[in-house]
Every structure is written in structure tokens, then in C-alpha cells.
């Protein structure tokens, strides 16, 4: 299956993800009311804004900060977030399908049912918080770090993951069916539970302890009966 297990020596090498380096300029406060489809937002701070149910599909956010915003059912399909920080967002059903996130930090999120299928994430840090039912089907992730967060039933089905790591993370019921992994580092994850697609772990690096934890799932995937 091509899974690499690390024994702590120097023989196992995995390319590390490049983290974003976001340096926001002085920001102006967003005072325009509701988001607009295909809107252009540059150098703005959205502070504790209630964006629930609003439509920002196709909008561009450049050098922006979204702090403690409510994103229930917010439509952000094909939106572009560039050199921006989203801190403590909360909401259910946020639609970011086919969105682009580049040089973005997502911090202390409390989100559920986020739709990121078909999205492109590059140099993204997702740190802290909890995200339930994260949909990343057919998404492209390059240089993405999930750090110290809880991901409940994340769906990576058919996604491409390159230089992605999960230090300190708890992954519960992850779906990797049809995914392609390259330089994916799971060694520092606090917990890894894979519900589907364990056969897609080729290209990932795990620790020897994780290999033992995953042994029953791996055996089942290979048709091995353990008695």
C-alpha cells in the first residue's frame, strides 16, 4: 500500500508544508451592510459581523480579517480569500464550494457542515477549534497545516493532498476514499481514525504507534483475518 511508518530515525523523509506568512496592513472597518456576489473587499476588518444567510459568491477578500463572524448558511461559492485571517468564525452550513484560499489562517473555528468541495487551498493554516463534517471532496490541498484542531468525519474523498500535516489534531472517522496523498505527515496527530479509504494512505507517513492502532483497519482492507 506504500504507507511509510516512522521509527524515529533519519531514514524517513517527508517534505514539510510551507506555512502562510500573513502580514495584514492597517485595516478599515467593514461598514457596507451585507456581502455582495462578486464583491471586492480589500484591506477590511469584519468584526463580529453577522453574515448568516448572505451571498458573497465569487467575492474576493484580499488582506482582510474576519474576526468572530457568524457564517450560518453563508454562501461563498467560488470566493477567493488571499492573504487573510479568519479568527473564531462560527456557523453551520457555510458554503465555500470551489473557493480559493491562498496564504490564509483559519483560527479557533467552530464550524459544522462546511462545504469546501472542489476548493483549492494553498499555504493555509487551520489551527485550534473544531470542525464537524468538513467536506473537502475533490479539493486540492497543497502546503496545508491542520494544527491542534478536532476534525469530526472530515471528507477527503477524491481530494489531492500534497505536503499536508496534522500536528496535535484529532481525526475522527476520516474518509479518504479515492484521495491521492503526497508527503502527508500524520505522525504528530493526537489521534487518527479512518472510516473509509485506508487503502489510499500511500504517500502518507505515520508513526509505529499509529501503525499498531490502524492494524485492524489495514488488515480488514487487505482481507486478512486475525484470530
From TrEMBL:
Coiled coil: none annotated. Gene3D superfamilies: E3 ubiquitin-protein ligase SopA (2.160.20.80). This is Pentapeptide repeat-containing protein.
